[in-house]
Amino acid sequence: MANNKGFENITLYDDGTHKFILLAWEEKEEEGIVQTNQYIILDGNEAVLLDPGGAHVFPRVLANVSEIVEPSKIKHIFFSHQDPDVTSGITLWMSIAENAKIYISTLWTRFLPHFGIYDQRKVVAIPDKGDKLRLSSGTELEFIPTHYLHSTGNFTLYDPRAKILFSGDLGTAIFNKGQRYVFVEDFSAHTKLMEGFHKRYITSSVALKKWLTIVEPKQIDIVATQHGALFRDTNVKKLFDWFKGLRCGIDIIDEIYGR
Fold it and tell me: How far are the Cα atoms of 48, 131, 169, 191, 225 from residue 181, in angstroms, in the given order?
């Protein structure tokens, strides 16, 4: 297990043939750059990369992946939405994982050429209602509609075998400098690091509650976020309960405009 600086890869789940791994963070925090989390799922000889990030973090993420698996074994790359901190390293990854498929909302496929991806045969457009990715072992990963949270075409990913929900930007926290940690321990204190982001970036409580109707019935041991710390055990329910009471986006539009 990594210390609170998180310099090493952390295996969140491992049953011998199926693994869900949090890739290591940058060794040093950088001014003006939001910390990001990247994940890889290993299933037999297949690897699935989740929100691998921008060009800026590519060397670090590639080094972390290479410690685990030959990058050419990456067969699937999932993008929760279109933001550059998620997608701007895409051409670098496709130059290494040449046989990989890209999974992204159907709304954003037309934007991929702007990142240098012209071969639409490599792109799998996820329909608005969601879809499943069936791996060669028979394990199915679920793309869950998460629209307007915050992107208009947005998905989270559920791994039923690992019982891990990759939540993308939902659950994001912005750490204070020098105070990073991998797992939430003090939930009440942690909400102070989440509140500002969610109030401004999450479109509305209506969209949030719709997503909760899909994910809450599932067995979830860990919520793995794109930014900040991860939630496990009782903090998963605390997070969902916190979402239920959140007023955000258009709910507080007058506050945002300051009038």
Answer: 25, 33, 17, 14, 13
